[in-house]
């Protein structure tokens, strides 16, 4: 028996049906007039593929997680804040909002609910939503939302390349260009453990990785900076 979830306003009118199987019955997504209809259909018992949201492409490993996610598109707001009674479409959105009550991140963006430690950081963030670009290059007139974006842009005019690859010494203008370059070295990530040589895609994942090593394995003079596969001269 199929399980019906709320109708969702369609973003297009052409007929379509897409099914993504996993171990439990996947969702069958169809169009009826101006709405999506979502129901579970039987899938082969041997499948273990992930499921994807047809509307936004987000990936899930569990059928229940996808069904909960679809409530966001349906406009269902079943999660209520016990402090102010505001409602939210997901548990993640509610958790993010709760930071505004803890005092740790008291400044909340009215556009997306993200919370920040101080008002100036919130002000900078809100420019993503408003499109405001107060920082202008005096060389070419190009405008930017954030000050550091303007500072990085200036290097186009000065020719400065402060990022250097430790593997081949090639220089790059900014961090993202350096990360792109590092991948040319057999897909290298920007951080490499000096103990077991494992690569990590971010600084936080490297810090988490290091906790897996025993204290006696880590040299006395070890620093997180030693895991960087690039040098930065700014």
TrEMBL record:
Cellular localization per UniProt: Nucleus
Primary location: nucleus
Gene Ontology BP terms: epidermal cell differentiation; positive regulation of macromolecule biosynthetic process; positive regulation of multicellular organismal process; regulation of cell differentiation; regulation of multicellular organismal development
Entry keyword annotation includes Coiled coil: no
Record-linked Pfam families: zf-C2H2, zf-C2H2_6
Keywords carried by this UniProt record: Metal-binding, Nucleus, Phosphoprotein, Repeat, Transcription, Transcription regulation, Ubl conjugation pathway, Zinc, Zinc-finger
Pathway: Protein modification; protein ubiquitination
All copies of domain C2H2-type, residue ranges: 51-78, 79-106, 107-134, 135-162, 163-190, 191-218
Family: Belongs to the krueppel C2H2-type zinc-finger protein family.
Stored PANTHER family: OVO-LIKE ZINC FINGER 1A-RELATED, ZINC FINGER PROTEIN WITH KRAB AND SCAN DOMAINS
Protein name, UniProt field: Zinc finger and BTB domain-containing protein 16
Organism encoding this protein: Galemys pyrenaicus (Iberian desman)
């Amino acid at each position: 028996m199929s399980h019906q979830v709320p109708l969702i306003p369609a973003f297009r009118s052409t007929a379509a049906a897409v099914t993504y199987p996993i171990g439990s019955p996947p969702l069958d997504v169809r169009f009826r007039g101006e709405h999506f209809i979502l129901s579970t259909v039987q899938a082969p018992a041997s499948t273990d593929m992930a499921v994807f949201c047809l509307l936004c492409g987000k990936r899930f490993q569990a059928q229940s997680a996808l069904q909960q996610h679809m409530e966001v598109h349906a406009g269902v707001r079943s999660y209520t804040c016990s402090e102010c009674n505001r409602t939210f479409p997901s548990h993640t959105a509610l958790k993010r909002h709760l930071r505004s009550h803890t005092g740790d991140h008291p400044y909340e963006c009215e556009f997306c609910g993200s919370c920040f430690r101080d008002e100036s950081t919130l002000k900078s963030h809100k420019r993503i939503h408003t499109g405001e670009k107060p920082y202008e290059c005096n060389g070419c007139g190009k405008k930017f939302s954030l000050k550091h974006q303007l500072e990085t842009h200036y290097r186009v005019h000065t020719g400065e390349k402060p990022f250097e690859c430790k593997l081949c010494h090639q220089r790059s203008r900014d961090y993202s260009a350096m990360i792109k370059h590092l991948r040319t070295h057999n897909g290298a990530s920007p951080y490499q453990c000096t103990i077991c040589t494992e690569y990590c895609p971010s600084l936080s994942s490297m810090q988490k990785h290091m906790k897996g090593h025993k204290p006696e394995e880590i040299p006395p003079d070890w620093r997180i900076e030693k895991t960087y596969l690039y040098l930065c001269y700014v």
